Amino acid sequence: MFDVSWKKLGIAAGLSLSLIVAGCGGQDDTNNNSSEDNNADTTINVSEKVDYTITGIEPGAGISQATNKALEEYENLAGWEHEESSTVAMLTALNMAYENEEPIVIAGWTPHFKFAQYDLKYLEDPEGVYGGEEYIATIVREGLKEDMPEAYTVLERFEWDVEDMESIMLAGQEKDIADAAQEWVDENRDKVDSWIDGVESVDGASIELVLTPWDSERASTNVVRIALEEVGYDVELTPVDPPVMFQAIASGDGDASVAPWMPQTHGDFYSEYEGEFEDLGENLHGAKIGLVVPTYMDIDSIEDLEPAE
C-alpha cells in the first residue's frame, strides 16, 4: 500500500458540496423592468462586470492548467486573471451569481451536477485550448492482471454514461456520496451485473483504488468499490492530487484508478508516467472541460470577452 511519507503529501480532503438554488417568486412590473435593465447592462459590459476574472478551482487540476494556457493563447484575454482556489469556492461563487442573475465566468467540466442544477453553457473555444470531447480512463498497476485477475476483469469491464455519474453527484448533495452510489447500484443491477458476471469470488483480498478528490471521481470510484466488494474484495479508497494519482499507479503503491481525464485534462501527467502502468481504456465517453457561463449571459464564445482596460 502507499508509503506514509508521500501519502500525507498527496491526500486531499474529499469535497462535500451542498448548494441550493433559490426558487423564483412572483415579481411586479417594476421588478421585472429592473431585471431587464440589469440583464441588458450585463450583456454589454460582461467582461467588466466579472472584473476580468475567471473563477477557477484547485491549482493542481488539469482544467486550471488549460485555463492558464487560455489566458496566453487568446489575445482578447489580455489583462484577465484566473482566480484559482477550490471547487467549493467556485461553486459558492456560481451559486451566488446565479441567484442574483449576475455574470460569472467559471472553469467548468462535464460530468458535474452543476449542469443539472443550473442552466449553463460552454463558451466556444476556437483556439482549441480545452480540447474536444474527453473521456475518463481506467489505469492499473503493472502485474495486476496476474496478481488479481478477478479485480482486473471487473475494472476492464467497468463502463457507464455521463448521466449515470451526474445522477450520483446530484444525489450526493443531499446525502453521503457513498450512499448515493449504493442507491445507483441497487437501481442499475443489470449494468453492474454485466461487470461482475462470471467473476469468481475472492476471500477478502485487499485492493487500493486511487482517485482525485472531486465528486465525479468519488462517484465512479465508489461504484467500482461496491462492485469489487460484491465479489469479495476489501477495498480502500485513497484520494490524492492528479499527479500523485499517476505516480501511485506507476510505482505500484496503488492498484488502480478509474479517475484519469484524457486526453487533455490529465494528459501531461499521463505522458510523464506512460509505459509504467497499464491503460484499460475508456470507462466514460463525453467528458468535457472549458469556460462556462449561465445561459442568461448573452455571449457564446471565449472571443466575445473583452481585454482588460
Automatic annotation (TrEMBL):
Domain ABC-type glycine betaine transport system substrate-binding: 43-187, 206-306
GO molecular function: transmembrane transporter activity
Lineage summary: Bacteria, Bacillati, Bacillota, Bacilli, Bacillales
SUPFAM superfamilies associated with the record: Periplasmic binding protein-like II (SSF53850)
Organism, as annotated: Ornithinibacillus halophilus
InterPro entries for this protein: ABC_Gly_betaine_transp_sub-bd (IPR007210)
An example Gene Ontology CC term for this record: ATP-binding cassette (ABC) transporter complex
Protein name listed in UniProt: Glycine betaine/proline transport system substrate-binding protein
